[in-house]
Amino acid sequence: MTPEEARRDHQEMLRFLGLNAVLGIVIGLAVGCCLIGLDIGGLRGLIIRAANPILPLFLVLVPFASLFGGAAAASAILTLPYESKFREEEEDDKSGDDRRSP
Questions:
Q1: Residue 92: half-sphere exposure toward Cβ, Cα within 13 Å
Q2: What does the pLDDT look like over 43-101, one tens digit per residue?
Q3: Burial profile 67-89: b = 16 or more Cβ within 10 angstroms, e = fewer
Q4: pTM strictly above 0.85
Q5: Do 17 and 73 contact (CB within 8 A), yes or no?
């Protein structure tokens, strides 16, 4: 693999990982908003009655966003086809070497 191909491959992998992390964050924020919106456990009432409602919102939404974002990024890492790309190239190199040797 040439340096340019490796750079392009790394950029594609980082883009894939970042996209999955952002999607996980969005899903986490949606779940947190649903908890607040559906008033599960009286959460919305507690937030509305708080002296500073920004802090409880922050304490509910940020952990959900980071948890779901991290889980989505981890699952993206597990599904990367990176290792199989190198196996295919190694097999091609080995089969090409076998043909060259007498």
A1: 7
A2: 999 999 999 999 999 999 999 999 999 999 999 989 877 665 666 666 666 665 555 55
A3: ebbeebbeebeeeeeeeeeeeee
A4: no
A5: yes
The identity of residue 55, as a single letter, is L
Would you list the domain boundaries of the chain? 16-100
- Angle (CA) 25-31-33 rounded to 5° is 100
> 31: left (phi > 0), else alpha (psi -120 to 50), else beta?
alpha
Token representation of residue 34: 């649903």
- Show the tokens assigned to 60: 């509910």
SS3 label, residue 79: coil
Helix (H, G, I), strand (E, B) or coil at 39: coil
Q: Where are the alpha helices (DSSP H) in the chain?
A: 3-37, 43-49, 54-78, 82-100
